[in-house]
Amino acid sequence: MPLEKGVYTFERLVLGRICFEVPEYQRHYAWDERQWEDLWNDLFYLDYPDKRHYFGTVILMKKPGYKRTVHGEMFEQFEIVDGQQRIATTLILIKEIIRQLRQLGTFPRDRIRGLEENYLIYENIYKLELLGDDREFFRKYIIGEEEPPEILTPSQDRLIRARRFFEKKLEEVKKNLPPDEYQKWLMQLLDKIIAMEVMVYPIEETGEAARMFELVNDRGKVLTNLEKTKSYLMYMVYLTAPEERLEALLHDINVDFGNIFRWLMEIQRSEFGQELKEDDIQRYHFIIFADEEMLRIPPAFKYSYTRMEAAPIYLDILKKYIRRVYQSDKEKCLNMILSYVKDLTKAFSALKDILTYDKDDEVKEWLERIFLLRRVANFYPLLIACWIKFKNDKDKLINVLKLIEIMVFRAYAIVRRRADAGRSALYDLAHEVHRDFIDYHGLIRELKDLIQYYASDWLFERSLRAPDFYERVAGDDVRYLLYEYELFLRESCGERLEFTLREILSRDKHRRPEYEIEHIWPRDPSLLGLSDEEKEEHEECVDKLGNLTLATKGWNRSMGNKPFSEKREKYKDSSLRVQRELASYETWGRKQIEEREDKIVKFALSRWSA
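RESULT FIELD:
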């Protein structure tokens, strides 16, 4: 009997010689704990049989041909245009109910087998086939109950967490019921599920299916922009690609997005990529990809968005541009879409390489410095563009990374420029690199000019010499500077460094720094016996750079407020050369602070020279 529009029970929809699959223009499994909780509560608290849960609308498209079982039975195939998340989640819950029934050991085996054949797998035919890599994952680790050795994508992570979520919910009920009552309760829950009311809406052709998905894809869990982009591009490919190329092009796009989501998982598992969202990365790519034609504002096209203006609304600009091109030149539209997907894939791959780089070399050292300074957002587009362009020329890549570190430290850490200072110029420069509008030497000149514009040598030095340096500059940035000075002192005398930048910046379980900033001339002058004139000097000099050094947490607590005369002997035995060099001073006051400040400023102007 053909599937017709109307209200079905979930049982009537799924039972029989019918199977479902997720088409390539769809997103991957996206439901998370909030949606699982909603479904569980709707069913758990449902007053059945007086009431039934409304499952929602399911839009299906009949596929040509049939799937054949091992013994020759024929199954109709339907693509799920809308309803994938609900159907997949419901089958996960049904699977967990069946597993619990089997574990009880009292439920008839033939009935368990019948439930599995009705709702999960009949011989070699799975009731639901997911998209891409999720297909095999769903078969083995959800239906097959194996524990996955490795989670490769965000959707696979959500699938396995959904299975564990329902397992936990059922186990909680199991604790409070004797086995026979629990078995009865499981069957009542299953009855609620299969009695759910579903509005089925069948459609007949692929173009309509893609269009329909584009219209309804904001239901349920809100799609990310990346997911919306995929569905929209798939739809536009349906409209523009020649019939003989359509299937191959859709497959290629789906493979590319599969790789993107896999790399996204690696990015978000990396130390410095945990806060990055997929929409952030897509926005960074748009900044380097969008040309002037794409950024022009219709209808007069006399004005264009800047890249900073375009960044927050990049998806709207992208979709409107594709529509404009589609109206005038379908072949150009198709080529633009394919070019965009390939370029987006390169950007995600590049950022994955950046954030998971593990070779023990200078590239890793400079990447680590940039990320430890915690001000990388403005530089992501440039990092991606430069990685794509220079990844096979390490010397050039290292020189670019050094200049990025210099700009971050000088402009944002010490001069204290606003977080968005230079962002527009950096975005434009990233685009020029990506589009080959500027060569390596031009890029180096531009970066040096930006450094001088936002943190000139004069401004950098003035900021280092600020009387309130300790109050103006963040503690981690002061530690970063003093670590680099420690490194310089050790290299000057051929002494090996015994600790790392990470250790200097690390914090304990209470988020307190393991290494602290010590005021050599203590901030509290009460134990120093100062005259009125000396107190005035103390107030003027105590927070200057020359009066600051590194100290372990324990050392600073025991010695921090003591006079220099008592600290001096301890400095001689310190593991830190920035402390040991202080032992060469007989006394400590304004003159010594300014003398030491001169030395550190001279070092800093050389170390962060542009």
